[in-house]
Please model this.
Amino acid sequence: MSAPDPSVTAGSAPTATGGRQPAASTSVPGHAPAAPGQVAQLDLHDIHLPGSPPLWPPAPGWWLLAVLVPVALGAAALRLRAAWRARRRRERIIAELNALPAAGCGPELLGAVSALLKRAALNRFPRVDVAALTGSGWLAFLDRTGGAGDFAHGPGRVLDDGAYAREKDCDAAALIALARRWLRQNL
Model:
């Protein structure tokens, strides 16, 4: 590679013979040509920034948001309504259980507790699995779904005969507490 020619200066153009000659100065109409070694002043305008984007139509993301937000709010409202109705139903059934007399284990108490548990079970589980259950099958179902053995072998065993039995020796308060626990667990 050869060393640069010291006679070559910026602003010069090559000639046909290989030498350089000074570049022709560009003249701007209405302006005087620039003196050698000075840059000519050009009449340029400043940079124009683009205008702000229009408000309508919105970008696709806003359309998507406009669809998803109402759908999400509607789904949340439906879930809240269902939870509120379930809580209200649970409170109503437990209030009905609390209104039962806990004095004796007569047929009225046993029939009312069994009917209350059956209504709640029909509400919660498939009708085919619950509707035909009676006696020890009913107690086994109650134990399987949250009774932890207390219906077949604990205070709930008096529900085996239900409302058709005469006065039984049982702990009415323990039976109601067991029914309350099962209801809270399954409603």
Residues 65 and 71 are 10 Å apart (CA to CA). Residues 60-98 form the longest helix (39 residues).
